[in-house]
Amino acid sequence: MSNLRNLINDLVIANRILSHEDVVDAYGHVSVRHPDDPTRFFLARSLAPEFITTGDIMEFSLDGAPVGTDKRAPYLERFIHGGIFEARPEVMAVVHAHAEDILPFGLTGGTPLRPVIHSGSFIGSDVPVWDIADKFGDTNLLVANVEQGQDLAKCLGQNSVALMRGHGFAAAARSLIEVVRMSVYLPRNARALWRAKQLGGDIKYLRQGEIDARNRGYSPYSVETWRAWHYWATKAGVGNMVTRPDAKVAVSRKGAKLAKKPAKKAKLAKGKRK
Amino acid sequence: MSNLRNLINDLVIANRILSHEDVVDAYGHVSVRHPDDPTRFFLARSLAPEFITTGDIMEFSLDGAPVGTDKRAPYLERFIHGGIFEARPEVMAVVHAHAEDILPFGLTGGTPLRPVIHSGSFIGSDVPVWDIADKFGDTNLLVANVEQGQDLAKCLGQNSVALMRGHGFAAAARSLIEVVRMSVYLPRNARALWRAKQLGGDIKYLRQGEIDARNRGYSPYSVETWRAWHYWATKAGVGNMVTRPDAKVAVSRKGAKLAKKPAKKAKLAKGKRK
Amino acid sequence: MSNLRNLINDLVIANRILSHEDVVDAYGHVSVRHPDDPTRFFLARSLAPEFITTGDIMEFSLDGAPVGTDKRAPYLERFIHGGIFEARPEVMAVVHAHAEDILPFGLTGGTPLRPVIHSGSFIGSDVPVWDIADKFGDTNLLVANVEQGQDLAKCLGQNSVALMRGHGFAAAARSLIEVVRMSVYLPRNARALWRAKQLGGDIKYLRQGEIDARNRGYSPYSVETWRAWHYWATKAGVGNMVTRPDAKVAVSRKGAKLAKKPAKKAKLAKGKRK
Amino acid sequence: MSNLRNLINDLVIANRILSHEDVVDAYGHVSVRHPDDPTRFFLARSLAPEFITTGDIMEFSLDGAPVGTDKRAPYLERFIHGGIFEARPEVMAVVHAHAEDILPFGLTGGTPLRPVIHSGSFIGSDVPVWDIADKFGDTNLLVANVEQGQDLAKCLGQNSVALMRGHGFAAAARSLIEVVRMSVYLPRNARALWRAKQLGGDIKYLRQGEIDARNRGYSPYSVETWRAWHYWATKAGVGNMVTRPDAKVAVSRKGAKLAKKPAKKAKLAKGKRK
């Protein structure tokens, strides 16, 4: 149960980071699969991510139905999460957001979104664009039922990110830390590519071997990855909620006040060097 | 009378949101029609929207004359509001602003501003550009009398937004919540289109059927729409002023301190699910 | 003497506004001519504008020499101010800054900087570009002596703004309020033009008659102009320093806390309506 | 020893400035060579620069090995620093960062990054682009060993900055103050060039003679250079740590509260005028 509590904490942290880093605003959401029951996932009730606390997390089955008697209003688009968790057993966390700087790449095929910077490698070499109109015709563009969620998941396939035309993106990863990181760097990669396009000349995308090399070396608890998670959480005001599975004790409250004092007792950096 | 007080509160909230979301700065304003007298509307005295409180709201007739003996200095361009309220009986709220990112679309016909993202759908499929010089020749570009306000309203026609060449935009909607939302997402839609243009290739605009579908489903008090209003108000520092017509009591003061504690008592999300 | 104290206060306010609005950073400065002695002007000692208070203001003669025995380090480029005050007797205030978004227009003649938005009208229809290399060859680009200041002033001529190639701009106006306003809207006008350029099609610049009409109507103490000065000062943290020459008393301290309470006693808006 | 303490303080300040000015985020680092032992350098342990305090600084030999028994996790890419310090005896400080706005110039040869604005002059007339794949094939793009660090240093040659394709940049200078300044203005120069490119026409780069003139006049303790260091440090919340080698006493704590009171005792500006 303690693990579950930490996971819910991490989900709250993920919400706050995505809000503070401008990936979500009043809209957009992040979910995590139940570690003990792959047919269920956690997602907040309908609330702006910046305001979410542990009490706002709901539990859903893969068809988007709330578990038990929870009557609170859920996010309309919870079917995005259910659809992807159903289709991809190895995926443990999903983000859906409208991050502004990725939108242009869903509006035109003129320049496909592909990784150009090392921090963007985790989006993978292929980022498909899902157009809800292809199968469902004229809609309000929202993923509002199981069938639409499944169709989006089908378009996503084995990739990490799918753009949604005129709407946003869906991202899937093996952990909350990874899906948050991917979602933060996805817009940055988009901006770098968009600007490079304006400078003229041929663009050097990441090589497939580079994408693969980075993917192989990834671990959510490496010193390097953890550093960003801790940094983003602290900036978002929830540094005090950060815990590490392999740490004896939770990280101290130092995050609450940014960098005022030396963090003498922090054990964070003593993990395995890489 | 209680309803009127809530409406004035909402008008203050609208001012603060538009300022916090960078739609207005020292200039720009938002009005709401009097619910009981369609020949009158409310608009603040001449003051930067960020500073406006309930005591700053004035009442005007459609010709821009202050009601009663109110001697405070009004906004020069109140004729924009009067002109649109006169021409469009169903319109209940109007925004005029200089939001920077929409300006380029009023300066050239090279790329018409049209909806490309779902949150931009409410601007409607046609966004006319009003050029004050067409009828009035060399002016200071400000809408400074009834005739100019009426001419702008004529150009707006049955649309939701008109760009004003070299100046800004005017937006009209059925409620304050809707006109604020439209004004916040208008610049975002403009940026997405402007950037897509730079990526090359054909741009996929929203389909007419999609615009219609979104318009049909809109309600200012749906869970989804309310979530953004509450979020923006809280970020702008007036979360404590938010009220819901169908709620028994006003929302608690939780907004004053951003997301520090779980909002255990919030009833906001218990409305009708959609 | 009381007037002089108010003018020094206004100069401090101008410094803070320009810093808060990102026109200056550690570099850039604003000056005002001595109201009783046209051969002298006030300018801060060498300090970032954000930190400047009344005690930091120095007095200079038009050749850039400090008046009296003041030994504090002055800005290196005070010759910009002296040169313009010498050449333009009607100019009462000067800004020099490196505002990032105007720099591109000094680097290429591909798109001349001209007014396209109404708030940019005060820069005037012609914005010459001064290249220090034309007369002085290889320098460090700084205006470091009287001769260079005079040459810049010559290029400025009767215009309001001159761009300085690879460096920034110099702006001149009839009052501090006007030169600050011009300096804040200059980058905004530049961005609108730059983005319009990317949208394709012919750009509609402000018409000469429009520029003239706006210029005729300008007054630093009009309700409209004052509203922005008061707004910017308050946002920059010096709302409490704002005074109005035609007001009986100084504006209250309400600015110190942004928009927390209704400003019941504010007399600001009771001036002449226009 | 007192000098060493000041140097470590300056290194902390450098970290905070680079973070506050958006040059680094969770990633990126700055080092300084040991003043008494050119075979050693100081660099923080693996921690986001915003959080670094004096206790986080580690000492390394040029091969990237921690000195003594320090077991804390170091930055993976410390080999960038070692490689450059080894190859360039006159270099005293190094920055590596991923500043977003320089990335496009490493992705395409369409528009080489060169100085166009005076504050960008210190990057030098030639900014080579290092592609790790040229020698090392498919990697995770990180500079993870001595050989890679040496190869990057070789590409840098006698220049001040090298771009790293798909990754970021490395900058080298004669002092911490200089390398920080260069790193802050590098992205600004990149943006000015990128935007000028969009305006059309031929771009006027800084002339070689101008770059040389600026370089000759540079001193980390000139009034002008110091002004920016003091400004950036204060904005980053470490104004109280600022010291000047030629000052009798440390700068007072005024920086802790931004510009609230006149800095009556500040001796900063009394240095040599230039």
List keywords for this structure.
homotetramer, 274 residues, alpha+beta, 7-stranded mixed sheet, 7 strands
Order of helices and strands of chain A: HEEEHEHEHHEEHHH
Quaternary structure type: homotetramer
The Cα radius of gyration of chain A reads 19 Å
How many alpha or pi helices of chain A?
A: 8
Approximately what portion of the residues of chain A adopt beta-strand conformation?
A: 5-15%
Name the shape of chain A in a single word.
globular
Average pLDDT over all residues of chain A: 90
Task: Walk me through what this model shows.
The structure is a homotetramer of 274-residue chains. The first copy, chain A, is α+β, with helices and mostly antiparallel strands. The first copy, chain A, contains eight helices and seven strands; from the N terminus they run H-E-E-E-H-E-H-E-H-H-E-E-H-H-H. Chain A has helices at residues 2-20, 78-87, 103-107, 132-136, 146-156, 176-199, 208-217, 223-235; strands spanning 29-33, 40-44, 57-61, 93-97, 129-130, 161-164, 168-173. Chain A has a seven-stranded mixed sheet, with helices on both faces. In chain A, a hairpin with a 3-residue loop joins strand 6 (161-164) and strand 7 (168-173). The longest helix of chain A has 24 residues, at 176-199. Chain A is globular. The two termini of chain A are 31 Å apart. The model of chain A is unreliable at 248-274 (pLDDT under 50). Chains A and B meet through helix 3 and helix 6 of A and helix 6, helix 7 and helix 8 of B.
